[in-house]
Design goal:
The structure is a homotrimer. The first copy, chain A, has about 130 residues and is an alpha+beta fold. In chain A, the strands form two sheets. The first copy, chain A, has a five-stranded antiparallel sheet, covered by helices on one side. A three-stranded antiparallel sheet of chain A has the order 2-7-4. Chain A is elongated, with a radius of gyration of 15 Å. At the A-C interface, strand 3, helix 3 and strand 8 of A face strand 4, helix 2 and strand 5 of C.
Chain lengths: ~130, ~130, ~130
């Protein structure tokens, strides 16, 4: 099973939780058990699994990443000027693999799945693929 | 096939090799070929694959990560105070996908699978899922 | 389906695109749909998905990573002296999972798959495993 999702981001750097969309799709497809690959189709936006409770974690997370890979860098050669977002994407990962059991994602209490925008706002896409088993 | 493993970490930051536990489980389940997802169920502990020989690599690895994402940060807003461990978890990954061939994990000579504690010591859980094929 | 690929890197740090090799293999094996795990068999070389157009991205990417995890570090204990490459490998990931649809990798317009050398030049190996479905 394969599906493509769209989302519109609204900030330059942003973590948007997509757990609910993924779980809704799992139910709509009637999937019971297997694995799910969630893959960003971009080189300046990734996917990660992180805290779904305190929204301050997202703020801290994005600020800290920006400190490690600052937007402005005197030595960057890439003409588009978004080298930092490429590094952030490879750091969190362009994709994540999740486990599905009894029709639900196997996540810890505080885990949520996030689409990570690192060069927005933009129209974005991610692909979801399930292997049942 | 799905299983949940528990472990007790003993330090604030710690890399615990779990390769042997995973391979033992593969044998006990009689799995020959496929892939295995090993997934931490926490947002402050992850999974990575790294060197299994010189224990100094772990020491250096954790110290260097701490320098990049220091525990104390004047701008952090997250009340729990463990923002750094969230960043470390997304950096190494909450989960890894491994290949199984002829009843064994396909790993290089120096590769081992590690549970990475970034906010311990704690009781921790990880889930293992195999898709045969 | 399982295969092992070899490559010779030619620099200390280098990103080598392997998308074409992977797609050629998919065609030669007649794979239509599924997922593909591409896994480095080393602890000082990883796999990532990033921009396939402007070569300056690779230059910036490797320089920025080196600034975050510098080769020389006064506190490193690991005798081989390549601690930085271990951190870079876990940061980008030792492996990536890709989606295959209609005989092709599902990648965005600008996405390419890269073997990332962090302690070369060396002879390197990576394993590719496909689960069809």
């Amino acid at each position: 099973m394969l599906a493509q999702f769209h989302l519109q981001t609204s900030a330059h750097a942003q973590m948007i939780e997509i757990t609910t969309e993924l779980e809704k799709w799992i139910r709509s497809e009637g999937i019971d058990n297997g694995i799910m690959i969630v893959s960003s189709l971009h080189t300046t936006a990734g996917i990660t699994v992180n805290e779904n409770a305190d929204p301050d974690v997202k703020t801290d997370f994005l600020r800290r990443l920006e400190e490690v890979y600052p937007w402005e860098h005197p030595k960057d050669m890439h003409m588009e000027g978004n080298t930092a977002s490429h590094l952030k994407t490879s750091t969190v990962g362009h994709a994540q693999t999740l486990i599905i059991s009894n029709g639900q994602l196997v996540l810890g209490t505080w885990q949520g799945v996030y689409f990570c925008e690192f060069d927005g706002p933009r129209n974005r896409k991610y692909t979801v693929k399930v292997i049942e088993g």
